[in-house]
Amino acid sequence: MSKVKCRHCKEKIDKENAFSPREKLYFCDQECYRRWRQTDDGQLDALLDYVWKLYSPSKQTSSTYIMIKKQAEHYHNVEGFKYKGMFLAVRYYVEVLERLWCDDYGLGQVFPTYYITLQRMYEEQKALKEKLKSTTKSKDKVAIGSHNIIRRKGLSLE
Ligand SMILES: [Zn+2]
């Protein structure tokens, strides 16, 4: 029986019993796969797998794959971008903005611009949530007065 290595825990396992979400990718079980998805390696793989499929079949060559992998690693290691965030940024570019993927270019058509855009949007959203949280809190304080409590009871559906 041929043996394969679990991509996550590196355990040697029987190929027949391995969990394989796709070709040449093996895990002990779904749990190892789930954990791997949270790691840098797993998130980079998800990014590359997604980007890879954006290219037309004639461009799906090993040199294209190596190029986008190198680029992704560069943005991660040098610019400090998170793989998960990059994945979201590419999806945002393609699925939300509905931009066409240009076969002649790599990740440069999305990064760094859209990573930064998305990061800014995320931070604005977070700030907005914090703001809403604090205004709700101050409203609660106002409502402490007995008058407000009575009125609140009147509004209750109980
Ligand atoms: Zn494993």
Short description:
It contains 6 helices and 4 strands; from the N terminus they run ββββαααααα. The protein has 158 residues and is mainly alpha-helical.
Description of the molecule:
This protein has helices at residues 30-37, 40-52, 62-77, 83-96, 113-142, 146-155; strands at residues 3-5, 12-14, 19-22, 25-27. It has 158 residues and is mostly helical. It has 2 domains: 1-38, no CATH class; 40-152, no CATH class. The strands form 2 sheets. Strands 1-2 form a two-stranded antiparallel ribbon. Strands 3-4 form a two-stranded antiparallel sheet. Helix 2 packs parallel to helix 4 (83-96). The longest helix has 30 residues, at 113-142. The protein is globular. The model is unreliable at 152-158 (pLDDT under 50). The chain binds zinc ion. Residues 6, 8-9, 11, 27-28, 32 line the site of zinc ion. The site of zinc ion has 7 residues, from loops.
Would you report the number of β strands? Answer: 4
Structural class: mainly alpha
Q: What proportion of the residues is helical, as a percent range? A: 55-70%
Q: What is the CA-atom radius of gyration, in angstroms?
A: 24 Å
Elements, N to C (H/E): EEEEHHHHHH
Determine the N-to-C terminus distance.
Answer: 67 Å
Major β-sheet annotation: 2 strands, antiparallel
Shape: globular
In terms of per-residue confidence, which ranges show pLDDT below 50 for 5 or more consecutive residues?
A: 152-158
Beta content comes to 5-15%
Mean pLDDT, all residues: 89
Count of the separate structural domains: 2
> Given the structure, what is the number of helices?
6
Strands ordered across the widest β-sheet = 1-2
Q: Which ions and ligands are bound to the chains?
A: zinc ion
